[in-house]
Specification:
This protein has about 500 residues and is of the alpha+beta class. The chain is built from 16 helices and 18 strands.
């Protein structure tokens, strides 16, 4: 608000402040209901600010002539008491608006207001006005305290500076930091747009199980729980893929789901054990069409939600308007590692030597395909700043992807990288039930050899494929990382309302 506000409170012991506020609450209880629920606002701060934004059209005289009466409610964020008149900054979910309070209008309530604290939830009713400094305000004729705040908010000049505290106490972060509120409004609009984009193209949104009797759909370590009534272990899903493809077998040719996946992995700026994925499947499409869908969907979201195509992400300018590059994985590796020859790519001893030279830890069971991927992740992935589709992944590391007709050692698969981060993974689906069964068995062998992320054998999925899966293209997009890009924030925790944290000491 433009009118002067009080200077910040002097540092004080938080427990003393809480005790003082509790004493005020007890006084409210003695007077009657301290937590009323009978006030209903009919206007929102942000809407009023937008509607009456033009100070010339809606000057003091113009507002007085209209006499617009409003009922507003929200959190008391600042106040200045000046004898018989006071100013209050009220914040609701849409924004801020100023209240103008007068003792002559409010009477005894005005005196009680003087003891109210920053953070209290209040309500007001009155007519709109504009102050001498040009601030749109509500001239309050009714003022009520709806909820007493027992804990003081962080100092407005310093905010919630501790990043870890912001994540742990997101509710406080959202109260005091407009930047955080903006990120989560953006996230909501992005997801809404992705739904609209797919709905327009005749995709059907579905919901598949979150608990699986057999974990599948991705090479990842699952979380394990137990169903007491059935006396069986269940797994929080690592991916919805196998269930969505069952639906494609059933005749839903275009399906998608936006929901949570769970992977029992570490926590970092890129990873959270619980994350949101968009996964879709389109019958009679290959990975090339799915790349087109991915590119178009991300570009459309940037234009529709952010109204721009250039984004600064961790100091790099990302251009989403240009066609996304398409680059074979082996070509990218050889470009960044000229000492690797074409012959080396299929020579196990040579690939092991290159990994050792690069300081990559390898296991004896890794074949050439896995070693190639390890070299890519170490030497190429961090350099992929502009949007790049990496294609032709080895079959060894793609147990659900269709093998290439030109080279069965490779698959019709891609991953999308932006700013050195994987944002999407897609491929032409493997729909040969015998080939899929053989790959599942190879995964089981890897699991028996100690690979905790290898897949389980899913006999029912093989049975579904035996009924016939049409030629299909599939896609998974990491919603959290896409929002990180569009919001320009460095950590996945910045786009998760309640990220995983270690227990407080």
């Amino acid at each position: 608000m433009n009118d002067p506000t009080l200077p910040p409170e002097a540092p004080a012991d938080e427990n003393r402040l809480i005790a003082e506020r509790r004493n005020k609450l007890e006084a409210l209880r003695a007077e009657g209901n301290a937590y009323p629920n009978d006030f209903r606002p009919d206007a929102f701060a942000g809407d009023l600010q937008a509607e009456y934004a033009d100070p010339e059209q809606w000057n003091a005289a113009g507002l007085e002539a209209v006499g617009r009466r409003v009922r507003v409610a929200g959190r008391l964020m600042a106040k200045r008491v000046m004898g018989k008149a006071s100013f209050v900054q009220l914040r609701d979910h849409s924004g801020d608006i100023q209240l103008f309070l007068q003792q002559s209008t409010l009477g005894d309530v005005y005196e009680r207001f003087k003891s109210w604290d920053i953070g209290d939830i209040i309500a007001a009713e009155g007519v709109l006005m504009r102050t001498k400094t040009g601030e749109l305000s509500v001239k309050a004729e009714l003022l009520r305290l709806l909820t007493k705040s027992l804990r003081p908010l962080p100092d407005k000049w310093h905010g919630l500076a501790d990043v870890e505290q912001r994540y742990r106490q997101r509710y406080v972060d959202l109260i005091v930091n407009e930047e955080s509120r903006a990120v989560f409004r953006l996230r909501s609009r992005v997801i809404s747009h992705l739904r609209h984009y797919l709905d327009e193209r005749r995709f059907l949104e579905v919901e598949t199980p979150m608990m699986h009797p057999i974990p599948g759909g991705a090479t990842a370590r699952p979380f394990v729980t137990h169903h007491n009534a059935l006396d069986m272990d269940m797994y929080l899903r690592v991916a919805p893929e196998l269930y969505l493809k069952r639906l494609t077998v059933g005749g839903f040719d275009r399906v998608y789901e936006i929901n949570r996946n769970f992977r029992n992995e570490g926590v970092s700026t890129r990873h959270n054990p619980e994350f949101t994925m968009l996964e879709l499947y389109q019958a009679y499409a290959s990975y090339t069409e799915v790349m087109d869908i991915t590119e178009g969907m991300i570009q459309s979201a940037a234009r529709a939600v952010c109204q721009k195509s250039l984004f600064n992400w961790e100091g790099n300018e990302i251009d989403l308007a240009q066609p996304f590059r398409r680059w074979r994985l082996d070509e990218a590796v050889r470009h960044h590692n000229p000492e690797i020859s074409a012959a080396d790519l299929r020579d196990l001893a040579a690939m092991q030597a290159h990994c050792r030279r690069l300081g990559i830890h390898i296991k004896t069971e890794y074949g050439c395909g896995r070693l190639l991927l390890e070299i890519f992740e170490r030497s190429v992935e961090p350099s992929l700043i502009q949007p790049t589709f990496i294609t032709a992944y080895p079959t060894e590391v793609s147990p659900l992807a269709r093998a290439s007709d030109a080279d069965p050692e490779l698959t019709d698969r891609f991953e999308l990288f932006i700013n050195g981060k994987e944002l999407a993974n897609g491929f032409s689906e493997l729909n040969d039930p015998d080939d899929q069964e053989a790959r599942f068995r190879a995964q089981v062998a890897q699991k028996d050899a100690g690979d905790a992320e290898a897949m389980h054998f899913d006999a029912d999925y093989i049975r579904a494929l035996q009924y016939g899966l049409p030629p299909t293209g599939g896609l998974g997009v990491g919603i959290d990382r896409l929002v990180m890009l569009l919001a320009g924030v460095p950590s996945i925790r910045d786009v998760l309302l309640f990220p995983y944290m270690r227990p407080e000491a």
